Amino acid sequence: MNIVCLDMEGVLVPEIWIAFSEASGIPELKRTTRDEPDYNKLMNWRLDILAEHGLGLKEIQDVISTIDPLPGAKEFLDELRSVTQAVILSDTFEQFATPLMKKLGWPSIFCNSLEVAPDGRVTGFKLRPQPTKLKTVQAFQSIGYDTIASGDSYNDLGMIQASKAGFLFRSTEQIKKDYPDIPAFEEFDDLLAAIKAAL
């Protein structure tokens, strides 16, 4: 039995924090897991910036409502789910992901959760056990699944390397250079073909 585990941001949808950075005019918020492997450190830094600027969940959700999946992402996911089981493993948050999952046809997603005060301030976050994606893949394997994984960032490498097949998708030149043994693709058709060949 196979299950395909996909990253979300940068693979199926644009990076939420980059979109919010551009909309809010705060360039520091462009930093993502492509730049900072320590997710706890990255999120605490983001929360400090939000507090400093008086921004909360509503402002972020307003930007997310304008984001569409990457061109071809829904078609890729529909075709993939017609031939095998697939799940999205993301370090994003339920409060961010829901409108994007609707646009992608409601695929299954495992992600984290924000702690939000009554006034909408983001006060903290609850992460699944770290490293989340690797531990989720290992859990699938422990119940009899063969995993195939794809992502674009440092926090995807664990699940990619632990799977029977793993692929980088639209990753950075630095990550591709540092991990030349991981096949890297730029187009959904090529990724889909590689996944189908690994099934």
Polypeptide structure, described:
Helix 3 (57-64) packs parallel to helix 5 and helix 4 runs parallel beside helix 9. By secondary structure, the chain is an alpha/beta fold. It is built from nine helices and seven strands; from the N terminus they run E-H-H-H-H-E-H-E-E-H-E-H-E-H-E-H. Strands 4-3-2-1-5-6-7 form a seven-stranded mixed beta sheet, sandwiched between helices.
Major β-sheet, in short? 7 strands, mixed
Put simply, the count of helices is 9
Radius of gyration: 16 Å
Order of helices and strands: EHHHHEHEEHEHEHEH
Total beta strand runs:
7
CATH architecture of the domain at 2-13 and 70-111 and 128-198: 3-Layer(aba) Sandwich
- The secondary-structure class comes to alpha/beta
Percent of residues in β-strands:
15-25%
CATH topology of the domain at 2-13 and 70-111 and 128-198: Rossmann fold
Termini separation: 9 Å
Shape: globular
- In CATH, what is the homologous superfamily of the domain at 2-13 and 70-111 and 128-198? HAD superfamily/HAD-like
Unreliable spans: none
- CATH class placement of the domain at 2-13 and 70-111 and 128-198: Alpha Beta
What share of the residues lie within helices?
Answer: 40-55%
- Spatial order of the strands forming the largest sheet: 4-3-2-1-5-6-7
The residue-averaged pLDDT reads: 95
